[in-house]
Amino acid sequence: MLELKQALRAAGREPLLSGVDFACARETPTSLLGLSPATRDIMLKLLAGAERLQGGEIRLNGRDIGQAKRAKLRIVRVGSAGAAKSGQKVGKIIDAGVAARVGLSGKLSAVVSALDAGERVRLAIAKARLEKPALLLLDAPASGLPADQRAQFVPDLAQMVAECGAVVVLAAGGADEALGLGGDTVVLSGGHVQQAGPVAGVFASPANFASAQTTAWPSLNTLAMTMKDGRGRLADGTSLTPPQGVSLPASGPCVLAFRPDDSTMARETPGCVRFVVRAIGEQQIADRTYKRVGFARETWLSPLIAAEPPPPGAVLNLFVDRGKVLVFDAEGRRHR
Questions:
Q1: Cβ atoms 118, 152 nearer than 8 A
Q2: pLDDT recorded at residue 303
Q3: What's the average model confidence in pLDDT over 84-102?
Q4: What pLDDT digit, counting tens, does each position of 161-207 carry?
């Protein structure tokens, strides 16, 4: 068990941990979301005992993290660089069982320098397993991978670390890594835990705007407005009548949001909200292509499913199921 109790630490002028409490169990991997590359590094150094808190404590298996090495509690960190290139054969480094676990069964006779970037990260995780650590720290392992390799790597994360006997903590570089790992997730923002719990539940029902932004993959589509007299004033000066079945605050600033994959160019159910948008172009994210569209000075993404994408400037209908539309008030709280 890894436990943070009233953990306090700043990252420069920004709070990283402001009296934070959470625990990571050995049986269930845990992802940390909402950290920048710089704060990820500080967080992982704290969890490894390489840096100190300014208040509170971190304990691993009941012992202060600063005493982990003395207690022979091995801590291993794996990043996106993966295993160093060498002329050594993979089969001389790991056995067939571990190779199967991390998806390298067909690479035992290959030399490490012949592996692609994703395979070298898999090898690094395999080597970490063989060290039998008490704590395995994953530092955004997919962050440096090309889109095609990332799309293959991320879904295998859970299998790669399963039954390794360690507390597994992933400082995620993207929401897709957290989804691939499964288990539990902790969303951090502004030094506080915004939401925590099983990955599926947190992603399905974000508690606030910070959590919704952090758990969206690709980035959340948002529409900021100010409500007055039953209508929303948009950034381009136009107004929006609240969609039927979508509850908005009576007055003041708010944000309407939805995930790109919850939108479509074709009406699928009667209970859809329709937006008239303008095509901008396409964007490749991992192994998927999205249509970039504009609405009231906002740029949104929607899955591209047409054989021939519409040309830039084309006027299109974008549909979102009402049940998938999220609304947040001026303080970022979920409006229901």
A1: yes
A2: 92
A3: 96
A4: 999 999 999 999 999 999 999 999 999 999 999 999 999 999 999 99
Candidates 109, 161, 133, 125; CA nearest to 49 is 133
> How far apart are the C-alpha atoms of 177 and 42, rounded to whole Å?
19
Which residue, of 142, 172, 207, is where some domain finishes?
207
For strands 263-264 and 272-285, give the pairing.
unpaired
43 plus 171 within the same structural domain = yes
Number of Cβ atoms within 10 Å of the Cβ of 323: 11
Residue located via tokens 């903590």: 169
Convert 34-101 into a string of H (helix), E (strand) and C (coil).
CCCHHHHHHHHHHHCCCCCCCEEEEEECCEEHHHCCCCCCCEEEECCCCCCCCCCEHHHCCCHHHHHH
Select from 198, 151, 143 the least CA-distant residue to 30: 198
C-alpha R_g of the chain: 22
Q: What is the mean pLDDT of residues 57-61?
A: 96
pLDDT, tens digit (0-9, with 9 covering 90-100), for 308-333: 778 999 999 999 999 999 999 999 99
Query: 298, 222 in Cβ contact below 8 A?
Result: yes
Give the domain extent around 110. 2-207
Same-domain check for residues 164 and 228: no
Residue 33 lies in a domain: yes
User: From the centroid of its chain, how far is CA 185?
Assistant: 9
Note whether 179 and 225 are within 8 A (CB). no
237: left (phi over 0), alpha (psi -120 to 50) or beta: left
3-state DSSP assignment of residue 148: helix
